[in-house]
Amino acid sequence: MADPERIALVTGANRGIGREVARQLAQRGLRVILTARNAPAGQAAADALAREGLPVVFCPLDVSDPTSVDAVRGWVEERYGRLDVLVNNAAVYLDEHSNIFNVPIADFTTTLAVNLYGPLYLCRAFVPGMCRRGYGRVVNVSSESGQLSTMGGYTPAYAISKAALNALTRTVAAEAGPPVKVNAACPGWVRTDMGGPHATRSVAEGAAGLVWLATLPDSGPTGGFFRDGRPLDW
Length: 234
Known about the structure:
The chain is of the alpha/beta class.
């Protein structure tokens, strides 16, 4: 059982993998802040988990907006005094049928704003405090689409954003040092609105590897890329 006083924040958690990560963390005794850009959907998701007896509350957050991130940081500090676990799950996937030559630049801009700059803003907001306190867990939800070793031309904006997120993971891990475990994870092809109904994995299966990284012991890895607890090539 995790320390019941650990405070976790999960982005993009009104549905799918994010909501399941919030559930599994709360089931392990963490106090979970469920965030989403869609406030009614986020509040409904948090209320549903709370009705299961889980310690989950909602706070609105648009990860692509630095002002929104600053507001959440202030809210967390006022209510809890700290954040122990950050799961950067929020993401967009806009270019499934595009290639590098025809994907609209606007789609690149939006994808990078959410998938890269969102985690960057949140790491800048919360990781320094984790470093001062000597404890923290950061999970950046990436994808095998971002692996340079196998990258092709499919979904260029999404793939490039996830490769950049992997680079951010390495950089933040190096700056934070061993007490703060900063890792990237691929949940696999999961049956969500993004993954579609024909995906091979359930949301529970996709979330499990993220929860493992979010609750690592002090001897756990940092600066790595994982799927189901096993290292992936960059």
